Predict the structure.
Amino acid sequence: MRALTVIPHEQGSLAVTDVPDPQPGDGDLLVDGVAIGVCGTDKEIAAGDYGWKPPGADRLVIGHESLGRVRAAPDGSDFAPGDLVVGVVRRPDPVPCGACAHGQFDMCRNGRYTERGIKELAGYASDAWCVEQDFAVKLDPRLADVGMLLEPTSVVAKAWEQVEKVGQRAWFEPRTALVTGAGPIGLLTALLAVQRGLETHVLDRVTQGPKPQLIQDLGATYHADSVDAVTARVKPDIVIEATGVGELVFAAMAGTSPYGIVCLTGVSPAGRTLEVDAGTLNRDIVLENDAVVGSVNANLGHYQSAADALAGADVEWLKRLISRRVPLARFAEAFASQPDDVKVVITLGGVE
Ligand code: BGC
């Protein structure tokens, strides 16, 4: 069958290659791949900057924002043929560390976790794939066109959980949230902010294209001026940073209300230096009891809350996040960004 594979750390190696058909192990689901979403991590892997192949393999099947339909399920399974499913990305480390032993593999302490499509495990960008039932999430059938948004939403659901847990240190009734970046993560973060009843603001650079209207249609406010001007106006109780751009990260940390919480979700390349007034920043964080927390990946609980969040969202709005659907054979188009792209999706054998 066909799969989208890469030789990690070898730029230009991304290709559709022939791989053996999946052989379900005991308790696995056999799934027809419907689509995968392409994100910044996939682009980094394709550019040769990230990713690890499975031990003993030549190539890594990429794709971690999955969507498929169950072809076969073990007897007595909670899954049935035809169910819409998403595969979880991360697997616990083999030791396991304390966090992984407690099902919190998103919080792995020894870094030996594996990730489908990213780190040492084949991903989901193939015409068919297998997944352990315990690492599969069933989706509302209404999400058939947009289910590949579940994985990024799980990352966002985890970020919101982090904010809420940090907030519980003391009295916490947040009113305003600022999201920096209106890419898929920023838009989905804004969706979950609105679902929480927060006055939601989103900052991005663009003034054209679909983003301003998508934000407005959520009932949130779009801003395209300077981050300092926006934080001064909005005085956010919560900032979720979804760009990884140093200037925004530090401006967010400096620009919260007292008891502000900043959650960082953007992965930035190393080596970008910046001059900061560390004295003022430290003083501000201390005197305001502010908190800054980083957040990556998601565990099963976050996938479930993400599935609930998507099921409660306006599917027509979610569909507008998918800018282009590109068949697997034309994968290169999906990796070439176009100005108005939000989320680009590659369709697999399950639809072609
Ligand atoms: C994925 C996460 C993953 C992270 C680091 C992100 O793109 O969404 O699931 O943990 O990359 O590999």
